[in-house]
Amino acid sequence: MEESYESFAGVYDLFMDNIDYPAWCTYLTGILKEYGIEDGLIAELGCGTGSMTELLAAEGYDMIGIDNSPDMLEVAQEKRVESGLDILYLMQDMREFELYGTVRAVVSICDCMNYILEEEDLLEVFRLVNNYLDPGGIFVFDMNTPYKYREVIGNTTIAENREEGSFIWENCFDEESQVNEYALTLFIKEEDDLYRKHEEFHYQKAYEPERVKELLEEAGLKVEAIYDAFTREPVREDSERIYFIARECTK
Prior knowledge:
Blueprint: H1 12-15, H2 21-34, E1 40-45, H3 51-58, E2 61-67, H4 70-83, E3 87-91, E4 103-108, H5 119-132, E5 133-144, H6 146-153, E6 157-161, E7 165-174, E8 179-189, E9 195-205, H7 209-218, E10 221-228, E11 241-248
Parallel strand pairs: 1-2, 1-4, 2-3, 4-5
Antiparallel strand pairs: 5-11, 6-7, 7-8, 8-9, 10-11
Helix pairs in contact: 2-3
Keywords: Methyltransferase, Transferase
GO biological process, one term: methylation
GO molecular function: methyltransferase activity
């Protein structure tokens, strides 16, 4: 979790403009409403530049965005100024986040949970979520699957070139540790029209869905459903992203 998207933060949204965040928000809010959460306070773990936080706030939820990257949060705060939405941003590590009270739901998207490299840390995140959920509150999050790391992105190179900047994204998946290393090389156009090179390294871990379920239950959460992403269908062998829905049931 030391990686904080320092250089990438300023161009993150540029290179992520192929993601249909409104459709993603529709899926997420559909799940929340299915469990009776149509308004109220929601915390988003790993909110990044606040793209989803903004959309959820526009849907009428009172949002708290949590991220450990000051650079990403700076972009999120700029968006908040432009939109005028009432969003609270907190710079915290999700492994030790603190809230002022409980919330109706906690959400996390874009495989943020895969950045937790140790099981005991993932368990601690789940325990904290359970602690800060209202009685019966809902936890919704996604994860990349072992299949995706092993068969789709592991040991591949992704590159993109644009006027504002370019990136080379090299992946290396270690089967023994189940950790995928992202070596990110950025060439970012600056005010003097020169492109400056930046390098970052990020790490994500592949977790088997059944093990994640066990950790959620150990943390005191009841697993309500596990879906193939953006559907209500069961997880398949070739699912690349999956969604977990868990409920607080111990208070």
